[in-house]
Specification:
The protein has 228 residues and is of the alpha/beta class. It contains seven helices and ten strands.
Length: 228
Amino acid sequence: MLSMKNVSKDFVIHNQGGIKITPIKDITFEVKRNEIFCLTGQSGTGKSTILKMIYGAYRVTKGNIYLKINGEKYNISDCQIYEILEIRKKYISYISQFLQILPRTTALQYVSAPLLEKGADKKEAEEKAKEMLSFFNIKKKLFNLSPLSFSGGEQQRVNIARGLIENKPLLLLDEPTASLDVKNKERVIKKIKQYKENGGTLIGIFHDEKLKKELSDRIFDVKNNRYL
């Protein structure tokens, strides 16, 4: 479904004299359809950078990222911004570690937005969003408040609810359970398993070793550029 071929990413640190760093160098791997594929490695090895390149938030310095889906094939490395936005809308959900939301946007608006952007009925989209928020233990009285005022764990659960409200073919997860207690971790695990059962493909970063082993079909060591 997705393959990275000799992908590298350079960053230039302008406030340090234009120093160039290359956290990702010649990374190559393939992700099969309907598997949970885990990226592993110490902090700073470039795991989050890989997810952002797949999502098109970071441009590739060298190499290619191919996405083959619904009979179509894209080289994300060569896509224009408008093409990347269309690919995201149709095929890719991304759940980051951090909430990215405009001020005065309510939790209900934030979670229902992906459905509304695809033309869903507003009432139906909001009902689905309420179900997702309730599943992740967000209290009803918080639905119409901005998640910027929520605790770290609540913000992360709102983020997850938004990412999972659609069953897009590819889901990118960047440490989705870092701020969650055991009970809420179990809920996330349940939804991830349901997502896979419904035919979804997931590329994730899990620092929790137990969670990594429980969920992953395959694990890729980013630092050493090899499967484990």
